[in-house]
């Protein structure tokens, strides 16, 4: 291993207070009030701008930047304008409900239609199974003993088998990545495999609840009818079906308790290893139906009982599970083989806000813009794999990722590669003499790959959620710089919007954005940065001075001005629709769910679902930087509160058994990102 000399870089820029400060009474007044709320802070900025002639008269430091109106045209502080005016004007326009439905169907139609059809198919299969079992002639004895509990338990079990047969396919990353590049991707939204996985998980939760509640009533009915034969408790924990149910219930409990947001973020190891109990889960289900709890009546005239004649159904789960089980086994073997590729770290860059950039030697595989990889550092944890979005371009000779240091693994990794954040005692330890090797698995595809399939694209990143777009922006630069490759792409315009709370975050990709801005060909790219957090008084003074005298933004170092406050999304979409009338526009987002819902709503509102209308297609990208990489990252964290309410209503024991099959909704090998 080579020494680490020259491999490290500390990325810092001069603070705003380092620039000369002009004597401005408005700025002095702002210094007294800078501790106010965010709403008051915005008002102060507007007052400050008016007092220094920055917010009026069409002043612009870069008139040729081509900034779209409504996004801060020729104005530093125009991002502060009241959003409510735009929103009220949108709501004030009365449109036919049919138009709203048509616009809504552009982004939501296929998924909701599929969801409805899937639910109806399950209900139909349940109804058919229930009717068949309730009218079966050879089950009259058990039907008289158990009543409706018999068909309820068996019919729900059939639907559970159906869902279990499909749920593993959604976690086969290699299969999904291969299918994305085929013609099938045009008709089947493979990027929605997480939504499909969640849908199956909810279905399993519901039908499992029905199944377990029905069987608990069956146990009690058996005890009442034949008290000398067995007790309900004995059937629940002493019989074959009952014992296997308890095993999978315990596995379910351990998996679910590790899915809470706090555990998953701060103790990823617990989350990772507990989710491998899905092996116990499937093993228990394979044996669960083999004990033949439901037995058919004896045929007329029969003098003895034979297993073939007596057992109703038997072990049938394997017939449903075998296809997806084999596919998933092949998937895991392929991951193990691919994951053995070793590579070495070539460069480490310590960025502000506890972000580490790691560059590694490129293994022997090809990647695309917006994809992600899995990283394993054996020196830290041999069996832990963490996903990270690639921030390097496919045209570069190395792979780069940006890691935000928040969890146990990321802290250990940052320490091992020599990054120290703000602790003087840690800094005194110096850099390590060598860097560890890492193993790489991937790359895997995401919706961000489709950015070149539209005539215009809007890239929206919030905070560290900008990382998928770093690779995309680099790829855009390489393609635009090459006239041959540029002629082959459909994309003609890119709007890049980056929203950050802390001004230091803009330093992560400052060099990249500066290069793209300086070599912007035919105004192909527009960069818009928004700062939603507050500034100190001396930083405000620097912003004022730099805006009047300089050509570069005091915060980002770009020619494009920084807007203060949250973007006026409806104004942005309205203006872009006016510029790109009749075109298909892709909206790619990575960041918090709340902002994603806002953008999704804007896509529906501003889409014109006509043949010649402008259509906004929402694509929520996968952003992985925090090593908290389960597909159900938001699923379990948000919905476990619902489970806890159910737990208060029903017996804890019944809850665990009832939701046992839901464990696969948290399969640890899926990747869903913030």
UniProtKB/TrEMBL annotation:
The chain crosses the membrane at residues 113-131, 151-172, 193-217, 243-263, 270-296. The keyword Iron applies. It comes from the Eukaryota. It is a multi-pass membrane protein. Keywords: Electron transport, Heme, Ion transport, Iron, Membrane, Metal-binding, Oxidoreductase, Transmembrane, Transmembrane helix, Transport. One of its GO terms (molecular function) is superoxide-generating NAD(P)H oxidase activity. It holds the Pfam family Ferric_reduct. Residues 61-70 have a biased composition (Polar residues). GO terms for cellular component: NADPH oxidase complex. Residues 51-75 are annotated as: Disordered. GO terms for biological process: defense response; monoatomic ion transport; superoxide anion generation. Its main location: membrane. Gene3D superfamilies: Nucleotide-binding domain of ferredoxin-NADP reductase (FNR) module (3.40.50.80), Translation factors (2.40.30.10). It is found in: Membrane. SUPFAM superfamilies: Ferredoxin reductase-like, C-terminal NADP-linked domain, Riboflavin synthase domain-like. Residues 338-450 form the FAD-binding FR-type domain. The keyword Phosphoprotein does not apply. This is FAD-binding FR-type domain-containing protein.
């Amino acid at each position: 291993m080579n020494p680490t000399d020259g491999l490290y870089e500390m990325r810092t820029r001069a603070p705003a207070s380092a620039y000369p400060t002009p004597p401005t009474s408005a700025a002095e007044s702002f210094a007294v009030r800078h501790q106010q709320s965010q709403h008051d802070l915005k008002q102060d900025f507007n007052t400050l701008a008016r007092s220094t002639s920055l917010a009026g008269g069409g002043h612009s430091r870069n008139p040729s930047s081509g900034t779209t109106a409504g996004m801060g045209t020729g104005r530093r502080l125009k991002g502060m304008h009241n959003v409510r005016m735009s929103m009220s004007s949108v709501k004030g326009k009365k449109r036919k409900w049919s138009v709203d439905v048509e616009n809504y169907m552009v982004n939501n139609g296929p998924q909701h239609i599929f969801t409805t059809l899937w639910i109806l198919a399950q209900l139909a299969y349940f109804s058919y199974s229930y009717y068949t079992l309730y009218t079966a002639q050879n089950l009259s004895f058990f039907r008289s003993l158990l009543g409706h509990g018999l068909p309820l338990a068996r019919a729900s079990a059939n639907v559970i088998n159906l869902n279990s047969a499909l749920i593993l396919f959604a976690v086969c990353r290699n299969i999904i990545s291969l299918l994305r590049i085929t013609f099938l991707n045009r008709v089947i939204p493979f990027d929605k495999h997480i939504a499909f996985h969640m849908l199956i998980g909810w279905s399993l939760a519901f039908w499992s609840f029905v199944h377990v509640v029905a069987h608990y009533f069956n146990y009690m009915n058996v005890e009442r009818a034949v008290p000398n034969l067995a007790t309900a408790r004995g059937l629940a924990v002493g019989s074959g079906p009952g014992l296997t149910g308890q095993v999978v219930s315990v596995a379910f409990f351990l998996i679910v308790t590790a899915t809470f947001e706090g555990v998953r973020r701060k103790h990823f190891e617990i989350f990772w290893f507990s989710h491998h109990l899905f092996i116990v889960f499937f093993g228990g289900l394979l044996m669960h139906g083999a004990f033949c709890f439901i037995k058919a009546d004896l045929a007329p005239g029969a003098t003895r009982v034979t297993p073939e004649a007596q057992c109703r159904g038997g072990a049938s789960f394997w017939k449903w599970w075998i296809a997806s089980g084999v596919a998933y086994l092949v998937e895991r073997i392929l991951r193990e083989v691919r994951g053995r590729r070793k590579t070495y770290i070539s460069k480490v860059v310590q960025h502000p806000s506890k972000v580490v950039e790691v560059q590694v030697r490129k293994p022997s595989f090809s990647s695309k813009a917006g994809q992600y990889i899995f990283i394993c550092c054996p020196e830290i944890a041999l069996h832990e794999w963490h996903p990270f979005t690639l921030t390097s371009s496919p045209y570069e000779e190395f792979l780069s990722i940006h890691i935000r240091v928040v969890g146990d693994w990321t802290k250990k990794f940052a320490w091992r590669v020599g990054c120290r954040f703000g602790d003087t005692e840690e800094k005194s330890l110096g850099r390590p003499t060598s860097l560890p090797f890492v193993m790489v698995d991937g790359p895997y595809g995401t919706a961000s790959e489709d950015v070149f399939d539209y005539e215009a694209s809007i890239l929206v990143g919030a905070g560290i959620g900008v990382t998928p777009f770093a690779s995309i922006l680099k790829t855009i630069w390489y393609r635009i710089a090459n006239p041959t490759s540029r002629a082959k792409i459909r994309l003609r315009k890119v709007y890049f919007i980056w929203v950050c709370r802390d001004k230091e975050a803009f330093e992560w990709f400052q060099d990249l954005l500066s290069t793209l801005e300086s070599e912007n060909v035919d105004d192909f790219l527009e960069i818009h940065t928004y700062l939603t957090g507050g500034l100190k008084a001396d930083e405000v003074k620097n912003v004022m001075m730099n805006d009047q005298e300089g050509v570069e933004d005091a915060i980002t170092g770009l020619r494009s001005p920084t807007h203060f406050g949250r973007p006026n999304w409806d104004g942005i979409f309205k203006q872009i629709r006016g510029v790109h009338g009749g075109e298909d526009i892709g909206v790619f987002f990575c960041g918090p769910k709340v902002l994603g819902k806002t953008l999704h709503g804007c896509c529906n509102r501003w889409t014109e679902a006509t043949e010649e209308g402008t259509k906004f297609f929402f694509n929520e990208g996968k952003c992985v930087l925090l090593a908290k990489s389960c597909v159900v990252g938001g699923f379990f964290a948000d919905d476990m509160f619902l489970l806890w309410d159910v737990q208060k209503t029903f017996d804890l024991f019944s809850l665990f058994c009832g939701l046992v099959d839901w464990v696969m909704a948290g399969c640890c090998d899926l990747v869903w990102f913030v």
